[in-house]
Design goal:
Length: about 325
């Protein structure tokens, strides 16, 4: 089947095909490359970590390297366990696939079963899977992918080599997004790329999707930080920090004006503004840690009020007033 590259989402279009192209996870990739040199010694694998760090991509790269990019589907069963997470799936699809060898492929004497989001599998299904992993080891290898390994029963964990995927390095993400933008001929500023990476918080899939959306909205003009802010639904950090600084320095009226500018420009709810206030508060260097803890506690209180249905304008104004009060105390103590 011929795939139209232009119609692909960039997440799929630029998904690595081989292990050496996986972004940032160097230690994990080097360990897996050792298994690829002698596939017969490869154990069952478990990949754990937050979304967007390359777990599924790495599993597919293993399939590509074991069986070849053209043939891997013939020797691989790929399931999303969050959709098919019951004991029937394990007993029927997984058991049937693992029961019969697909035939050797070169030096690879087994087929591959990739179970994504397996931490969503029910307890009975995991118990059944444990036994299947044990009895089918001659004909199959499992790659289990999860966000939280603690939700996987211990007998399954003990049968796997566990690899924990960490958040991607900020610099590596920036370089990868720049490379995609260059290939797609997207004129984007460095500040805009950095804004996307900060927003994604180590989730590369999230970052690439944001980049593609921003590129679609550029309307012929270069993608700048303003466009990115509109796409991701966050105000400019500079504006939020300006609002916080005004409040802490006692200029409540001006802080309130900046708050309404942010609401008017981005159409945010009170909860969204509070979330960004919490994020930007910890970037302000002149506030001591104990004061940040106190202000964070205040933010939490007003966030709770908003979840209980309180008026957004009144609560945000009251929150800024509390910051002004705390800022006055900070000035007296300095």
């Amino acid at each position: 089947m011929v795939v139209n590259e232009e119609a692909l989402m960039w997440v799929e279009k630029y998904r690595p095909k081989i292990l050496r192209d996986v972004v940032d996870q160097h230690d994990i990739v080097e360990s897996l490359k050792a298994f690829m040199k002698n596939p017969k010694v490869m154990p069952h694998l478990m990949f754990a970590g937050i979304p967007g760090t390359g777990k599924t991509t790495t599993a597919l790269c293993i399939a590509h390297e074991l069986f070849g990019i053209q043939n891997w589907r013939n020797f691989t069963l790929e399931l999303n366990a969050s959709d098919e997470r019951g004991i029937d799936t394990v007993r029927e699809r997984v058991k049937d696939f693992s029961r019969y060898s697909r035939g050797a492929f070169g030096d690879v004497p087994f087929a591959l079963i990739i179970l994504d989001e397996c931490d969503q599998m029910t307890g009975p299904a995991q118990t059944a899977l444990r036994r299947i992993m044990e009895t089918s080891s001659r004909t199959s290898r499992f790659i289990l992918i999860c966000n939280q390994s603690s939700k996987i029963i211990e007998p399954i964990q003990s049968r796997c080599a566990i690899f924990r995927f960490s958040r991607l390095d900020r610099t590596a993400m920036i370089e990868h997004l720049k490379d995609i933008a260059k290939k797609e001929k997207v004129d984007i500023s460095v500040e805009a790329v950095e804004r996307i990476v900060d927003y994604a918080e180590g989730d590369l899939r999230h970052a690439i999707n944001a980049l593609q959306t921003a590129a679609a909205y550029k309307d012929g003009s270069p993608v700048d930080e303003r466009i990115v802010s509109q796409i991701i639904g966050e105000a400019s950090p500079k504006q939020v920090q300006l609002m916080l600084n005004k409040a802490i320095n006692g200029d409540f009226i001006e802080a309130r004006r900046v708050m309404y500018d942010i609401i008017g420009t981005y159409g945010f709810s009170g909860t969204e503004i509070i979330r960004q206030m919490q994020k930007e508060l910890f970037k302000i260097s002149y506030i001591p840690p104990e004061q940040k803890a106190e202000l964070s506690n205040i933010i939490g209180e007003y966030d709770y009020r908003l979840t209980q249905g309180a008026n957004s304008d009144l609560q945000l104004s009251a929150l800024l007033a509390q910051f002004a009060k705390a800022g006055k105390a900070l000035g007296e103590n300095s």
